[in-house]
Amino acid sequence: MPLLAVRDLEAAYGDFKALHGVSFAVERGEIVSIVGANGAGKTTTLKSLLGIVHPTAGTIELDGTRIEGRRPSDIVERGIALVPEGRNLFREMSVEENLTMGAHVPRARRSARSRVAAMYERFPILAERRRQPAGTLSGGQQQIVAIARALMSEPSIVLMDEPSLGLAPRITLEVFALIRQINERGTAVVLVEQNVVQALELAARAYVLSEGKTVMQGSAAEIRANPEVKRRFLGENSPP
Amino acid sequence: MAFLIVAPHRLNGYFVNLIYITLVYVGLAYGWNIISGYAGYFSFGQITFFGLGAYATGFAINAFHVYWMLAALAGGILACAFAFPLGYVMLRLRGPFFAMGMFGMAQTVRVLITALPATGAGAGLFLPPGSDVTSVYYWTLAVALGAIALTIWIDRSAFGLRLQALREDEQVAGTLAVDVTRDKIAAFALSALIPGLLGGGFIYFLNYIEPDAAFSSRFDLQSIVMAILGGVGTVWGPLIGGVLMTQISEALWAKFPQFYLMLFGGLLVALLILLPHGIVPALKRRYE
Fold first, then answer.
1. Which class is B2-287 in CATH?
2. How many angstroms separate the Cα of B58 from the Cα of each of A235, B31, B214?
3. CA A190: distance to chain centroid?
4. Domains (ranges, CATH) in chain A?
5. How many CB atoms sit inside 10 A of residue B48's CB?
6. Domain ranges of chain B
7. Quick one: average pLDDT of A84-101?
8. I want to staple B194 with a disulfide (CB 3.0 to 4.6 A). Which of A43, B31, B268, B288 is the partner?
9. What 8-state DSSP symbol labels residue A53?
10. Cross-chain Cβ contact B161/A97 below 8 Å
């Protein structure tokens, strides 16, 4: 049984239907990349997984339990965490307050202090900046805070929405190394990323979304070798 | 603190009244600070709860002949209880829409009370003769101190951290398992309890209440300005802003009765330009 199984997911913003049938699965400890053009429904898919957007049809199973339509607080409590697009830190709150907010779920609340201390050990830069308002950190440091905040609840799966967005190439490499490190500790990752080359290097498997539907799936190598993917996302021409 | 406790027995009526009105403003500013400062919902209608508390207290005294403090406590609880359904509806609005919505709510309740014969309509509600300024003073002092204690608790608690998080980004707070609706309604209800309790003291202080005094925009606006001047979303901002503004206003009125409003307005504008985030944040930045 996969850790996360999404079947025929549909979602809408008012009259606008954003998802028309998204399906994918994530095994334990796996990195799965979701690839697609702007407006393909990647972020809406992540929002639906977390309960921010209510699906109009389809199912989402986490560890065999249906979670679609539940409140975000219930879903986070069950072990999903989100690193949102653009970091979305609480900019005026300190690094430590941001991290503490990550341990807000009931199962993590009592051990919030020790979890913060563990994050400082893992990311020493955060210990140095603990009192600093998160909004005053550099882009890379903010991304580390966003990732550390998501890890505070010790999720079984982390959803990452464009983690390299707005970062310098060198910092992007560091962030991808961090994602690999997190995965090596046993946390599954769903990676939505514009930087398709690096996302496919990191992922074991990938799904391609187009106009709110899953149109392709396979191992990362298969997806990377697909002529359509090469043409649309990797900037390469198909072989004659 | 000792000064505040002995004040009604040592000072003349003018100074006792001045401290009393300062405490009312400080309490109102603290109440506003919870929903607007910590939770980020800028309200222009917290006076609704002050008026409701005043009228509920007057009604309880006249109808049930209960001791006024019990009636004022009931008034505060009623205002707080009213905030739950009201918050459920109003807190769906954000930013200027919430601010305008609350302003409209205060005016709606004022007009309703003006139209109701049971509340004395526009003529107002009279209490039996025999007000006791000292007991009102201590009641208001207790409410203001309670409001400060509540704010200290909020500032240090997980609840306060959640309020600050939803002030910054409600959706992100939701993705971190914060029950956003529950927390903001709780903040709204707490911020209604304080003016409700103060309104109960106010009607007993005047021995009479009428809609324009109970739902006074002046009370509302001045307490908001005090909280902003002191520092929004801080523990000591409403106290510093409240005491400073009341004393400056009084001193200017005594020295320049013809020009005091002009001078006071000018001074306020200058202070807000010099300290746009308020006094407490400016002091923090300077000394941290």
1. mainly alpha
2. 76, 22, 11
3. 5
4. 1-79+155-240 (3.40.50.300), 86-154 (no CATH)
5. 28
6. 2-287
7. 91
8. B31
9. S
10. yes
